[in-house]
Amino acid sequence: xxxxxxxxxxxxxxxxxxxxxxxSLFKYKSTKxxxxxxxxxxxxxxxxxxxxxxxxxxxxxxxxSNTSSNxxxxxxxxxxGQVPITNSSLTHTNYTRLYNSSSALNITQLYNIARVxxxxxxxxxxSGAIVVTNAKSLEAVxxxxxxxxxxxxxxxxxxxxxxxxxxxxxxxxxxxxVLSVTSDKLVYSGVFTPASTFSYGAGLPVAIVDDxxxxxxxxxxxxxxxxxxxxxxxxxxxxxTTPFGIFENGxxxxxxxxxxxxxxxxxxxxxxxxxxxxxxxxGSSNSTSSSIxxxxxxxxxxxxxxxxxxxxxxxxxxxxxGAGYLSPVKAQILLSIAAVNGVTSKxxxxxxxx
Length: 354
Ligand SMILES: *[C@@H]1O[C@H](CO)[C@@H](O)[C@H](O)[C@H]1NC(C)=O
Ligand SMILES: *[C@@H]1O[C@H](CO)[C@@H](O)[C@H](O)[C@H]1NC(C)=O
Ligand SMILES: *[C@@H]1O[C@H](CO)[C@@H](O)[C@H](O)[C@H]1NC(C)=O
Ligand SMILES: *[C@@H]1O[C@H](CO)[C@@H](O)[C@H](O)[C@H]1NC(C)=O
Ligand SMILES: *[C@@H]1O[C@H](CO)[C@@H](O)[C@H](O)[C@H]1NC(C)=O
Ligand SMILES: *[C@@H]1O[C@H](CO)[C@@H](O)[C@H](O)[C@H]1NC(C)=O
Ligand SMILES: *[C@@H]1O[C@H](CO)[C@@H](O)[C@H](O)[C@H]1NC(C)=O
Ligand SMILES: *[C@@H]1O[C@H](CO)[C@@H](O)[C@H](O)[C@H]1NC(C)=O
Ligand SMILES: *[C@@H]1O[C@H](CO)[C@@H](O)[C@H](O)[C@H]1NC(C)=O
Ligand SMILES: *[C@@H]1O[C@H](CO)[C@@H](O)[C@H](O)[C@H]1NC(C)=O
Ligand SMILES: *[C@@H]1O[C@H](CO)[C@@H](O)[C@H](O)[C@H]1NC(C)=O
Ligand SMILES: *[C@@H]1O[C@H](CO)[C@@H](O)[C@H](O)[C@H]1NC(C)=O
Hints:
It is a single chain. This protein is an alpha/beta fold and 354 residues long. It contains ten helices and twelve strands. It has helices at residues 2-10, 21-42, 107-122, 138-148, 161-169, 232-236, 245-249, 264-271, 328-340, 346-352, and strands spanning 73-78, 93-97, 126-132, 155-158, 179-181, 186-189, 205-209, 215-217, 256-258, 277-280, 299-302, 321-322. Strand 3, helix 4 and strand 4 (155-158) form a beta-alpha-beta unit. Residues 55-56 line the site of one 2-acetamido-2-deoxy-beta-D-glucopyranose (NAG).
């Protein structure tokens, strides 16, 4: 009992990956098989014996699209958030509802959505995909997709599909990686999506949608350095773009905790239940002497503040990794993707994190 009380004191920020961290921590082993059963009962299963549907996928439309192109269709995948009442008002759009969640989506759900997005993106007739999600999940979903998808077709994550349709239909949306549109109609690179709409300084917008639904781009198209074609992630970890690891290893548990003075035995007990830990670094102070470190699981320090701050290896304990400019939720997503792909060494994580 004491241990659980201590744990709840330790767990921080609402976590995208685990909605109810305490329960998940202790149920992890037993629910593992249940997840994989869930997954194929509710969603189209990737058919490894048939590859005709996906042949010549991404370069079919060369990443650019305009609404007038004959049979190309914008796929809108709804997981929560705002969608118009009538679908019929829009031609060339196809709505699919996967979830209607108002809480933060977890890693299992993110991978499920990714598989569906991938299928629509691989389909020649689709011009791009929009994923509508709730406000709590926007940052996690758009960062997750930024790492997972390496395509020229636009993938736009939003809370409100009305704002995202002009963006996904705009020729300038191609070759920028995954984009997100916040409810103040600012367009961000998925890598820099702010934690909430009005947390200015947490990310740099790349465009604005005006009242006539025209998209005004601030910059020429390019991808964020973290996922550019010369990045470590794209060059050395091409398995990060496959969604299958999760079925072999179960969903990773990567909680976010506050830094503080915890006993080393608490951290050791935690290490056996989780696959990684994100520690919210305490303010601008130096966390090198923090008590949260582990030889067993990867520990990443991130900062929750706006504007952006940078946590490097000089700021963290010796066997931990600094998340660079990534927020705790983004660090949690990246660490989870790494865990799914069996990448846990400190040196590998140091290369992957900015
Ligand atoms: C899930 O897939 C496996 C293998 O493809 C199959 O044996 C199992 O019956 C499926 N479960 C459900 C609930 O469809
Ligand atoms: C997978 O594709 C093969 C070949 O097209 C087909 O025979 C098989 O029925 C498909 N399986 C499923 C589960 O759709
Ligand atoms: C899938 O693709 C591989 C290689 O491109 C090919 O050898 C195989 O016959 C294809 N399978 C089907 C079912 O089309
Ligand atoms: C894929 O592209 C190649 C070359 O462009 C073409 O020969 C082949 O028929 C295409 N396959 C499909 C399924 O469209
Ligand atoms: C798609 O791209 C691949 C490699 O980038 C190329 O080999 C293939 O011919 C392209 N297919 C079409 C239809 O442009
Ligand atoms: C793709 O776009 C580039 C420039 O945007 C163009 O040069 C190239 O011909 C296009 N390829 C196809 C297959 O449409
Ligand atoms: C769509 O693309 C076609 C061919 O690339 C072009 O002729 C047409 O003007 C474009 N339409 C719009 C609305 O941009
Ligand atoms: C709409 O999307 C769903 C899921 O991707 C797909 O099964 C369906 O065929 C699509 N409908 C149209 C008309 O393309
Ligand atoms: C993710 O959420 C779903 C639905 O709430 C739940 O069934 C599943 O167990 C959760 N998975 C994890 C890993 O927490
Ligand atoms: C998308 O599907 C392709 C197969 O065409 C696969 O190689 C790739 O790993 C998938 N990526 C994701 C993110 O689902
Ligand atoms: C952080 O603190 C440690 C010792 O407390 C010190 O050695 C180190 O230089 C400090 N790092 C920075 C970046 O100030
Ligand atoms: C993914 O790729 C990395 C780097 O190549 C490798 O170390 C890791 O073992 C791979 N993961 C899996 C599950 O194959």
